[in-house]
Amino acid sequence: MRFIDLRSDTATRPTSGMRDAIARAEVGDEQKREDPTVNELERRAATLVGQQEAVFLPTATMANQIALRILSEPGDELLADAWSHLFLNELGGPAVHSGLVMRPLAAAAGRFDAGQVREAVWDRRDTHRPITRLLSIENTNNSAGGRIWPVDEIAAVAEACRELDLRLHMDGARLMNASVGSGVPAAEIGRHFDPLTLCLSKGLGCPLGALVAGSSERMAKARRLKHLFGGAMRQAGIVAAAGVYALDQHIALLADDHARAGRLAEGWHAAGLPVDLEGVQTNFVQLDVEPLGLSKWDVIAALKEAGVGVSNTVHPTRLRAVTHLDVSDEDIEQAIELAPEALAARV
Ligand SMILES: Cc1ncc(COP(=O)(O)O)c(C=O)c1O
Predict the structure, then answer these.
(1) Where does the chain show beta strands of DSSP type E?
(2) pLDDT per position as a tens digit, 299-344
(3) Which of 109, 195, 304, 327 qualifies as a cystine partner to 214, CB 3.0-4.6 A?
(4) Measured from the CB, is residue 138 less than 6 Å from ligand 1?
(5) Residue 249 pLDDT > 90, yes or no?
(6) Which positions ≥6 away from 230 have C-beta within 8 Å?
(7) What ligand 1 atom has the least distance to the C-alpha of 140?
(8) Is 7 helix (H, G, I), strand (E, B) or coil?
């Protein structure tokens, strides 16, 4: 039985085209900026997201952490969505690596607004308060089920940040999903931030890799921090080649992932499963277990037994199914059949 792995878009394995590109990669010493493939990837990624420069890193977590460190001094305060990856899944990295005070903002569908930001910022004349220095937004938003920040809302938050002298970062691990899902070029979204994170190992299908992108001045700092954090590599072109290939070949395919998520949501909904149809904007489908009267863990186990992988979320009653390059139309049709049957047998 084939296991239909909808747990995460990190499940992708390199395609044969990507493996060919990896095999043919020209390489050099990346630490000396002599790896032509890394240099090429950095150039292309910077242009794609509307920034002067980009720095290649092993993971999006490292990209996020370096971004925060560039922007702050120890004791500064970071604002972000309470359920952001930065706050929930990076093991207190902002506090550990940058000495930041982490203040969560309440978010609806992964988003907060400029008014909330204005209210949250401490008055800098008050010497008993940390300096609210920076803000991060996550786009698409993982905990909110892959939802997109509309670009006009980003512009309003960016405007508030300028007024308040706040620095603005985007965890754009899934920025390309946001761009394809909204039809807004990534550079149009990216230009509001300095710096931002872009991940290659999620919907773009690379085995690893991410970039931090921003102004040349900030990227010079990012290159030093890359060494400090232990992320400066050697013949890294061997993996950067996968990134170049993905930027060429895989961005357009994200629309197929989104269509498959839509089809899965409709199929499950039609079969009576409690799916948030409205919430499907990119490659995530959220399934609420509460009306089923089953625990999240029971549902995960039942679906796994039936050959369908879904995963937990931070939400108390929601699970997620995520489409990606290794999930076909047939897989989706099968998952639409298998999941309701497997759950009907449990309730
Ligand atoms: C929104 C978001 N940011 C950052 C990351 C971190 O990516 P990585 O595991 O490659 O470090 C993830 C991983 O799932 C994510 O979903």
Answers:
(1) 4-5, 53-57, 77-81, 101-105, 132-138, 167-172, 196-199, 210-214, 284-288, 308-309, 311-312, 318-322
(2) 999 999 999 999 999 999 999 999 999 999 999 999 999 999 999 9
(3) 195
(4) yes
(5) yes
(6) none
(7) 1
(8) coil
Q: Does residue 40 line the site of ligand 1, with CB under 6 A? A: no
Give the position, in ligand 1's atom list, of the atom nearest the Cα of 171. 3
Tokens coding 295: 């625990």
Q: What is the best residue among 61, 87, 137, 197 to mutate for testing ligand 1's pocket, by most ligand atoms within 8 Å of CB?
A: 61
**CA distance linking residue 25 with residue 236, whole number of Å:** 10
Backbone angles phi, psi at 256, to 5 degrees: -70, -40
**Cβ(60) to ligand 1 under 6 A?**
yes
pTM flag (> 0.85): yes
The pLDDT tens digits of the residues spanning 62-75 come to 999 999 999 999 99
d(CA 97, CA 82): 19
pLDDT band at 345; cut points 50, 70, 90: confident
Which contacts qualify for 126-131: CB closer than 8 Å, 24 or more apart? 130/75, 130/76, 130/77, 130/101, 131/73, 131/75, 131/76, 131/77
